[in-house]
Automatic annotation (TrEMBL):
Protein name: F-box domain-containing protein
SUPFAM superfamilies in UniProt: F-box domain
InterPro entries to which the protein is assigned, alphabetical: F-box-like_dom_sf (IPR036047), PP2-like (IPR025886)
Organism: Erythranthe guttata
Highest taxon of the lineage: Eukaryota
Family annotation (Pfam families): PP2
């Protein structure tokens, strides 16, 4: 009888684990705190392996950065959330969104197509200790700002609304970056082997340095203080890693999408000299629902 009850309990545990695996990482953590029985199910590899991306084995084996030792799939999941993994020879970084398990990618600025990016008079390349990448782009001085990043849609998690973010820093003596820049996101693909077809496109104005921030910066610089900030959602904000970011637009990835995501940022209307921008990369991550 005891063996029969034990077998029933084990069967129930497996059923509960399967049910929890269809929820979310956040829900699984909540369930684990409810009772001892639910904790055993919610902590199981059955649950957390479903939250990992289907290609997690290839991600771990192909990472340029070491993956911390783990004994459970839950430990691996949170390791991939908390520590971005460098892929493709350090050109790309990947982490998982902690609440959904969806993939978040950042492409390093070295992989951008940057106007005059190969001329050291206008752009230079340096290493910063707080960057995940070996190099970042530093704007010395240009009057025509233009950059492009290209991602493959099939890398991203399907059935997900993504947003693109420019990740950057500003030098203390930055100038000319308070004009609105144009950001565009295009879906492009080959058209039956006869050129490129534009599937979809979104365009928005973004402010790397809002004019109100620029005015406060100049005032505070005269007073010996630090740059001001602004609560505007469409302008730059500080990230948890200390860098700044600005949303460039959003888009939806469907199951089986196969096209290139072309992201452009430019400012060519106001031909003033621009300098003091440090670019780490462009990140794609699931868009937060407000």
């Amino acid at each position: 009888m005891a063996d029969e009850n034990s077998e029933i309990s084990r069967f129930n545990l497996i059923c509960i684990a399967n049910i929890i695996s269809f929820t979310s990482p956040k829900d699984a953590c909540t369930a684990a705190a409810v009772s001892v029985g639910l904790n055993s199910a919610a902590e199981s590899d059955t649950v957390w392996e479903r939250f990992l991306p289907p290609d997690y084995v290839e991600i771990v084996s192909g990472s340029s950065s070491p993956v911390a030792a783990y004994s459970t799939k839950k430990e691996l999941f949170f390791s991939l959330c908390d520590s971005p993994r460098l892929l493709d020879g350090g050109k790309l970084s990947l982490r998982l969104d902690k609440s959904t398990g969806k993939k978040c990618y950042m492409l390093c600025s070295r992989q951008f197509q940057i106007a005059w990016g190969d001329n050291l008079m206008y752009w230079t390349w340096s290493s910063l200790p707080d960057s995940r990448f070996a190099e970042v782009a530093e704007l010395q001085s240009v009057f025509w700002l233009g950059m492009r990043a290209i991602f493959q849609a099939e890398l991203l998690s399907p059935n997900t609304n993504y947003a693109a973010y420019l990740v950057f820093k500003l030098m203390e003596d930055h100038e000319g970056l308070d004009c609105p820049s144009k950001a565009s996101i295009k879906f492009v693909r080959e058209k039956n082997g006869s050129g490129i077809e534009e599937v979809d496109k979104t365009i928005s104005n973004v402010y790397i340095v809002p004019r109100v921030m620029e005015r406060r910066r100049r005032i505070r610089r005269r007073r010996g203080g630090l740059p001001g900030t602004t609560p505007n959602d469409r302008v730059s904000r500080v990230r948890s890693d200390g860098w700044l970011e600005i949303e460039l637009g959003d888009f939806f990835i469907c199951e089986g999408d196969k096209f290139d995501i072309q992201i452009d940022v430019s400012e060519t209307k106001h031909l003033n000299w621009k300098r003091g921008l440090i670019i780490e990369g462009i990140e794609l991550r699931p868009k937060e629902v407000s």
